Amino acid sequence: FRAGLGGRLGDGRQYWSYIALHDEVAALRHLLDTDGLSGPFNLTAPEPVTNREVTEAMGRVLRRPAVFAVPAPVLRTVLGEMAGDVLGSARVVPARLLESGFRFAFPRVEGAIRAAL
């Protein structure tokens, strides 16, 4: 499972891209092995999720409550300029990858988390 930092950060509404390691490797092989593909491809799961959704999914999978959040002002104080990377949001979808025929083994966040355990 590859994503940003764990835990709810800021208001939790920022979108985070993630992908299961298995799917990342399979997607790279697909891109290398499929004739006619070139240019940029987004290697991210097909169902975008927010930081809050990642945190809740991790809590369910790990059977641990996700009860705290780190407020954005605290992150800005502690992380300075890097806070923008943590609090930023990008709702990325792998449109070209899906159009090329790739199928994800772990398209949903809970499956990707379970695959990483």
Over all CA atoms, what is the radius of gyration? Answer: 16 Å
Shape type: globular
Low-confidence stretches: 1-6
Q: What's the N-to-C terminus distance?
A: 9 Å
CATH superfamily: NAD(P)-binding Rossmann-like Domain
Instruction: Please provide the ordered H/E string of secondary-structure elements.
Output: EEHEHEHHHH
Q: How many domains would you count in the coordinates?
A: 1
What is the percent of helical residues?
40-55%
CATH class: Alpha Beta
Provide a count of the helices. 6
Biggest sheet record: 2 strands, parallel
Number of E-type strands: 4
- Spatial sequence of strands, sheet with the most strands: 1-4
Q: Would you kindly provide a written description of the structure presented here, covering whatever features stand out?
A:
The longest helix is centred in the first third of the chain and has 13 residues, at 21-33. Helix 2 (51-62) crosses helix 6 (109-116). The model is unreliable at 1-6 (pLDDT under 50). The protein has 117 residues and is mainly α. Strands 1-4 form a two-stranded parallel ribbon. A two-stranded antiparallel ribbon has the order 2-3. It has one domain (8-116): 3-Layer(aba) Sandwich (Rossmann fold). It contains six helices and four strands. The protein has helices spanning 21-33, 51-62, 72-79, 83-87, 95-99, 109-116, and strands spanning 8-9, 15-16, 49-50, 69-70.
